[in-house]
UniProtKB/TrEMBL annotation:
PANTHER family: HYPOTHETICAL CYTOSOLIC PROTEIN, YVBH-LIKE OLIGOMERISATION REGION
Gene3D superfamilies named among the record's database cross-references: 1.10.287.210, Bacterial Pleckstrin homology domain (2.30.29.50)
Protein name: YvbH-like oligomerisation region
Residue span(s) of domain Bacterial Pleckstrin homology: 14-136
Pfam families assigned to the protein according to its UniProt record, in alphabetical order: bPH_1 (PF08000), YvbH_ext (PF11724)
Domain annotation YvbH-like oligomerisation: ranges: 152-207
Length: 207
């Protein structure tokens, strides 16, 4: 235990630890992840955490993770997690103890877990990201429930129609019903599937 503690303190002192730093908005254009942002499509950076080997770039469209194998390697893997395709869950924030040098924010994009250590001096700023991700998770859950309710309502309507007598061209009636069902579900998902969470980030993060 004492040896592990000594090793951690030595690592922090020598600057070898992988504790992330929150990057100021004025420096967003200097991070590696900025090169992969879809600026042409209106994507905007709202929050960046950078460690020696990784960058976590939070945008209005999702998370861009620039994944480094190690601090010594220049090799990077760029991974995207979009809000319109993946849901955020399990958002937690762990504050630091007396001797800890870092705090930790944890969350999932679908089944992919993330655990990011951040300098404890930046806890107050990290709280803003915590609140934004928590709100995004809440909105996504609410949207999912609305889509489920809409689909259930459509099913009930179809069941009622199936018990009724069909008049006219049966094939055309079936085609019209199929087209209606398809368009209903497309519109439902489009209405209740946020791609852009700019307003949520603006609400909680002061850039």
């Amino acid at each position: 235990m004492a040896a592990n503690l000594f090793g951690k303190l030595a690592s922090d002192t020598l600057g070898l630890s992988d504790i992330g730093k929150i990057i100021a908005p004025s420096d967003f254009d200097k991070v590696d992840g900025d090169d992969y942002i879809m600026h042409e499509d209106g994507e905007k950076i709202f929050f960046v955490i950078k460690s020696k080997s990784d960058e976590y770039v939070f945008t209005n469209y999702g998370l861009l993770h620039v994944d480094g194998a190690s601090a010594m390697s220049k090799k990077r893997t760029v991974k995207r997690h979009d809000f319109c395709y993946e849901t955020v869950s399990g958002v937690t924030l762990e504050t630091a103890g007396t001797i800890d040098a870092d705090v930790e924010i944890k969350f999932h994009f679908n089944e992919m877990p993330f655990s990011i250590d951040v300098d404890k001096k930046q806890l107050e700023i990290l709280k803003d990201l915590y609140k934004a991700l928590l709100e995004i998770s809440r909105i996504q859950r609410m949207n999912y429930q609305r889509v489920q309710d809409g689909a259930e309502g459509l099913k009930m309507a179809n069941d009622a129609i199936s018990r009724s007598s069909i008049t006219g061209d049966a094939a055309q009636v079936v085609k019209n019903l199929t087209d209606f069902n398809f368009n209903w579900m497309v519109d439902l998902r489009k209405t209740h599937n946020n791609r852009d969470f700019s307003e949520t980030f603006k609400k909680y993060i002061n850039n």
